[in-house]
Prior knowledge:
The chain has 144 residues and is mostly helical. The protein has one domain: Orthogonal Bundle (Arc Repressor Mutant, subunit A), CATH 1.10.10. Helix content is 47%, strand content 6%. It is built from 6 helices and 2 strands, in the order αααββααα. A two-stranded antiparallel sheet has the order 1-2. A hairpin with a 5-residue loop joins strand 1 (55-58) and strand 2 (64-67). Helix 1 (6-20) crosses helix 3 (39-51), helix 1 (6-20) crosses helix 4 and helix 2 (28-35) crosses helix 3 (39-51). The protein is elongated and about 60 Å long. It starts with 5 loop residues before the first helix and ends in an 11-residue tail after the last helix.
Amino acid sequence: MLRLSKRVEYGLLAVQDMARRPDTVVSAKDVADRYAISQALLAKVLQQLVRAGVVRSYAGVHGGYALAHDPSSMSIEQVINAIEGASGALVDCQDADDHSCSAHEHCTIKAPLAILQERINATFRSMSLAELASPRQYVQLEVS
């Protein structure tokens, strides 16, 4: 099943924290301590988010990180793409014109999986960081 990486999970926790406290510069240490996650890995993820323009970094004693834009104008997809790259394809053959798959000539699932991939991407695009940070109660979905 599709799983988000630990790096994406940490990135989402960090931007959620920033979106909940928009007028505050947060340090990697504070976020790592708050969520009991690796500060070293979080710092690397935050640098990727800075390079992608999702987060701004501030130097100095009271430095840290803050969202670069209004959380309602930023999507979960932007965070995922900043960390994992824009590809994120479900199967390798969707990533490029790589015909190394032995089933390439007779493949019947590439097109349906491309549709599924676009639906997943649309879902990530549809949720803003403001929604991620919203204190509202989410309904638990039962998996049948």
